[in-house]
Amino acid sequence: MTTENIRTYDVIVIGAGPVGENVADRTTAAGLSTVIVESELVGGECSYWACEPSKALLRPVLLRADAVQVPGLDPAVKGPLDAEAVLAHRNRMSADWKDDGQVEWVKSAGIDLLRGHGRLAGEREVSVETPDGDTVRLRARHAVAVCTGSRAALPPLPGIENLRSWTSREATSAQQLPQRLVIVGAGVVGVEMATAWQALGSRVTLLARESGLMPRMEPFAGELVTERLREAGADVRFNVSVVGAERVDGGEGEVRVTLSDGGEIVADEILFATGRAPRSEDIGLDTVGLKPGDWLATDDSLTVTAVPGNWLYGVGDVNRRALFTHQGKYQARIAGSVIAGRARGEQLDVGRWAPHSSTADLEAVPGVVFTDPEVATVGLTVREAERTGRAVEVVDYEIGHLAGAVQYRPDYRGRARILIDRDRQVVVGATFVGPGVGELLYSATVAITGEVPVERLWHAVPAFPTISEVWLRLLETRRDS
Question: Which residues are listed for NAD(+) binding in this entry (predicted)?
Fold first, then answer.
């Protein structure tokens, strides 16, 4: 039997991943009564099927890759990784796919939690179908924030629904090591999972439709990662796509993959890492004049622009501004501040780098790819600068020339690049490739968001011998060129 009741809050948040949690935390801290609706695990994709489990798989891989090059350590670490132990560690880092700890935090923050599938039901209203079949009607005095994130997008391959293929979820949560794994896709998920599963003992074939890995980044990033993947034993192929695939023995056996070049691959599992799609197909967008399944277009205050009244917000992956957990949490802080300000009747400050504007989504999105070597990027690439008509000066340096890099890893291979705006003389883009370069990224992000003049950077002295000395070498290269 289905019953219905109505509850009223100041703010309704749909989706209890890191983004939804942060929106709810901000609005609750501002004194607004807030309920968060979640149909799966509280903590979202990042905690259980993305950031946390993938890095738990990759950390032993990257640590071993460094240690095997260090004199005195190399004999102790040259054996194979203990895949069973790594998978068990991954399970612990994913809380064994139980959200008790996350639920406890939500309650401690004073946020109400409602389990169930939430759908918009008109202006400032959300209908929630609970697991026990009841329907709860929620009304918001001020705002509804859609924080439903994104999901893996599968290609339109004939018969794919019967293939039992992996997406990023299966790739980060699998409990058994496939002997042979085909990965389709050259982006971050594809290269990270190739790095992890090859090192754990799978025979990996990585298929890239493009002529290089991670095509949106500087070309040298993909080249260095390709080099190391092939050295590790992975079969990396370019300019090839999948035109057919089937799982034999009634859908229970191996996967046979037909390629665009006429070749065929046989594997135990196939992972499609071919992009993301918004989780918006069944959240009631049609009740507010939007098309189900679309990305939510927002302005810099994270307000959905096509819905009048400034009450609907799209925060995190669902708006497609920057598909990173850390960027979604940044947006959540902005959105929470905007919602609270509007509730108090305040005038918003939405100018560039202002408190109510997510400017960083457009100018300084940092990201790290946890491959061997690591790739760290923020701001513009050369290609993006050319596409947008920005006049930039490009400065490169081989990180392996640094004393700190050689101390880190005797065979250090890596490269750094910064882009300097010719008119404003500030850094507008940075790419670092090499072991451990993820820790360089925050300094680059600060330089870009702070618009630090290049001449001022001469006075930021890096410690010796550290990899951060690359900043000094980049400035010296520019001066001497």
Answer: 185-192, 275
